[in-house]
Specification:
This protein is of the alpha/beta class. The protein has eleven helices and nine strands. α2 packs across α3. It is globular and about 55 Å long.
Length: 262
């Protein structure tokens, strides 16, 4: 599958993968910072953003898409940064093709199976329930989302997926039906019998429960050279809540200073 992507800068390649309900636009400011020293690629994963839709939606398929992307663009030993679902895609690819990837940065996700999270299903249900023939502005869509998504920042994040299908009608870019019917795959753990022994950095949000102490044995089993760093007082959206802190961590781990402010 040919993925839509954004590209900034020159140098050694870095690929940044967004999470569920996200798109490449979420990481543009970080991509531009890293583009001072790297050639940065920001793809939209399948069923997200401008990339193609498919009823198949699982980590093996998304890792295959990423493998194809790396081969298509002839990227040599890229660093892969992945947030949440994108982090699991990055882990899957590195375990399946360890020779392809030089380093991993995994932002607030573990390789474990997670229990279903009702909030995700509530968001999908609300998004799918909106009658776009009856709304005429982004503000109206935001108002319809607000009972389920009271947090304004989260609501604005979801609204990045809204686009004008025609002059008078909105629609979601997300393939909500495929995502909804495959949520068990999104919450799945990584079950590859392999080891990736190159450098890996896990970045945890201090107020998030996506990386727990109980996850560390499986992290170390799959990624024996992994380190875990916590950014305190932030939740799951680490890169949005602490952009300067995460940039500083990238600088240390990638050994090239991330200093440019867009």
């Amino acid at each position: 599958m040919k993925l839509f992507y954004r590209h900034f800068g020159t140098g050694d390649p870095v690929i940044i993968l967004h999470g569920l309900f996200g798109l490449s636009d979420n990481w543009v400011s970080h991509g531009k910072r890293l583009a001072e020293k790297f050639s940065v690629y920001l793809p939209d994963l399948r069923n997200h953003g401008h990339s193609p839709h498919s009823p198949t939606f699982n980590y093996p398929a998304m890792a295959d898409d990423l493998h194809e992307f790396i081969e298509e663009h002839k990227l040599q030993n890229p660093v892969i940064i992945g947030h949440s679902m994108g982090g699991k895609v990055a882990m899957w690819l590195a375990l399946e093709y360890p020779e392809l990837v030089s380093k991993l940065v995994i932002v607030d996700i573990s390789p474990v199976k997670y229990p279903d999270r009702d909030a995700h299903f509530d968001i999908i249900s609300t998004m799918m329930s909106i009658d776009f023939d009856a709304v005429h502005s982004r503000e109206e869509v935001s108002d319809l989302l607000s009972p389920t998504i009271p947090n304004k920042a989260t609501r604005l994040f979801i609204l990045k997926n809204l686009h004008r299908k025609t002059r008078n009608n909105f629609d979601w870019r997300l393939n909500l039906s495929a995502i909804s019917s495959n949520m068990d795959h999104v919450f799945a753990g990584i079950d590859i019998d392999s080891v990736y022994d190159k450098p890996v950095l896990f970045i945890k949000g201090g107020r998030s429960d996506y990386i727990l102490e109980s996850h560390e044995p499986i992290i170390k089993k799959l990624f024996p050279n992994a380190e875990i760093e916590t950014i305190e007082n932030v939740g799951h959206w680490v890169h949005a809540e602490a952009p300067d802190e995460i940039c500083s961590i990238f600088s240390r781990f990638l050994e090239k200073e991330c200093t440019f402010t867009p």
